Amino acid sequence: MNISLLGDGKLLFIMALAAIVSMLTTLNTAARPAAIRTKQVALSLAVSAIFFMFTRFANLFYLPILGKYVDRAVQSGNVNILYEQIQWVVLSSALGALLSWLMLPTFTAIYERGIASITVRGSMLKMLLALPSVRGVKALFGCLRSPLELKAWACPNNCAPSEAGESESTNEPFALPWDLLSWNIFATAVWTVGALAALQVSALYPDLAATAVLLSGLVNSFAAIAFSLFVDPKAAVITDQAVSGQRPASHVLQLTFHLGLGNFIGGLLGLFTFPLAIKIISLATERLGHAKMDENMWLVIGLNVVVTCLMCTSLSSRISAVITKNVATALAIYNVFFLITRLTTQVYAPILGSVRDSVVKGAASAAELLPLFRWVIGGATLGTILGWLLMPTFVAIYNTAIKALEKRSGSMATLLKDLLKPKYWGKVWQCWRKPSNFGVLVSDLKLLPKSFLLANIFVVGIHVIGVLAAIQAGAELTGHLARTATLLSSVINGAATILSSIIVDPTAAKITDEAVNGKRSLHEVEAMAVFLCLGSILGTVLSQLLFTPSVKIIILGAKILGALF
Asked: Is 164 exposed, middle or buried (0-12, 13-18, 19+ CB in 10 A)?
């Protein structure tokens, strides 16, 4: 690695942002011990979304800025120096993960304080507004903890192995699931380099830049599969068991300690997975880059129907969480459905990127893209309607899957393997339920906060068009600004993430936790799910109106970044 490159102040700035992204991503692991201590699993995971929101902000800056380095490499013909610059970014991500691991005790305390504040104040927004106050700053400083506390996390005294290999306090054996820890390292190594490898490939294939950039998800999908099948389900079962008193809280501390350390190790391994990621994305870019513009558009529309339909299953998971009292496990199963949506998105997003590249090559005009993208948005509306109709069926699927996952000790891979056997197909079919609204009436609106229902409409409306608007903006721009515009899809999606992280998710999580703890009825959670799903349908209709303004915003942002950097 070329140390002389560190004399570039802008590169140092990008490295700092990459470290922040990695740090805040890793700190999500602190949500699990906080969930144990507060007994509010859903709300703990919602608070972790705040840190995810900050990562989106950081990505908003450093990926488009790094895109300028890609442009310079293409213009100068020196792509090798770009490779070395990105290597420093990967290393800084690993160092960010190390810092977050050392800060796990501090951020666990921050999680706990945040959960208590939301419970008292009633909303995430009020909690955030209180942070700049003198009292809020003092509270944050009061959460500072020494990294030396991690020594107790690594092997707490109350779970030290006895001569019989059992926990002294519970007389139950506990061995760290090393397969879980290994898969976590692998997932982190892949996640670290996905978007960065795509940028490198976009420099190697400048005429197919949009296709390459949007293929970052192809690499990240390997990480998503590993995490959703082998990491999150087992960690969720351990968390739920600790909440219910079936195992000591110290087990969760041990797991969190090793997951955080694994994120640092995985970040370092990213230096070695980076070349492989480049090869995978390069092969896919060459294949997709030569497809005709309208060749696969109906496939894209159909896949978008599937994506938006499955996204609605998150609402079904909250109903099942209350019914089964296994919040973390329900959310882990939802992550499998989310994984399917991610994989589906990674299929059609690069296809859309190749459509933009066809404009660059002169095979089409930017005006021809607009009606095609309108049809894609229409597919989102249809998918959301299907998700609403299938909600009772998905609730039954979640209930069955949660019980099955417990029997298999949290092994999602074993559960999915069993589903391939014909003898289990009947159980899946038995989950079919007629479409219904769970007896929810319009009058039930009074049971729920109106602001968060309205916010959900805008979240969905903005999220549906994030990538589409960025591609359209890239098609309308020329030169290096086209790649910057494509990378600025995070501007639109970031706005949706902010609204969701501050208003929608915390409120939904709070209502779920209150129902699990007996403070609300199951019917209130069902009403929340129904109204949120109906709001999602309205959101996809709203996205038709927001599409053109979003394109203009991204074009403006690309021009501003082009002028500044």
From this structure: exposed
Secondary structure (3-state) at 16: helix
- Alpha-carbon gap, residue 168 to 158, rounded angstroms: 6
Find the radius of gyration of the CA atoms of the chain.
23
Token pair 């339920």: residue:
433
Distance CA 402, CA 321 (A): 9
pLDDT given for residue 161 in this prediction: 40
CB 188 within 8 A of CB 259: no
How far is the C-alpha of 152 from the C-alpha of 388, rounded, in Å?
Answer: 47
pLDDT for 92: 93
Phi-psi region of 162 (alpha: psi -120 to 50; beta: other; left: phi over 0): beta
What share of the chain has pLDDT > 90, as a percent? 21
pLDDT in tens, 391-403: 999 999 888 888 8
Burial tier of 545 (Cβ tally within 10 Å: 0-12, 13-18, 19+):
exposed
Nearest to 380 by CA among 216, 545, 544: 544
Residues 312/387, Cβ–Cβ less than 8 Å: yes
Q: Within 10 Å of residue 14's Cβ, how many Cβ atoms?
A: 25
**Domain locations in the chain as residue ranges:** 8-154+175-564
One-letter amino acid for residue 73 of the chain:
A
Q: What is the dihedral of CA 302, 347, 367, 490, to 10 degrees?
A: 110
Distance CA(224)–CA(371), nearest Å, equals 32
Q: In this structure, how many other beta carbons lie within 10 angstroms of the beta carbon of residue 373?
A: 23
Average pLDDT, the chain: 81
3-state secondary structure of 161: strand
DSSP secondary structure string for all residues of 218-272: HHHHHHHHHIIIIIHHHHHHHHHHHHTTSS-THHHHHHHHHHHHHHHHHHHHHHH
Residue 171, pLDDT > 70, answer no
pTM: 0.66
Q: What pLDDT score was predicted for residue 163?
A: 35
pLDDT at 159: 47
Sign of the torsion formed by the C-alpha atoms of 226, 350, 208 and 554: negative
pLDDT of residue 167: 38
Among the listed residues 234, 217, 134, 145, the one whose alpha carbon sits nearest the alpha carbon of residue 182: 234
Reading the block at residue 234, the tokens are 């087992």
Q: What is the mean pLDDT of residues 153-176?
A: 50
Residue 165's pLDDT is 35
pLDDT at 414: 78
Do 290 and 328 contact (CB within 8 A), yes or no?
no
Is the predicted pLDDT of residue 421 greater than 60, yes or no? yes
d(CA 206, CA 510): 47
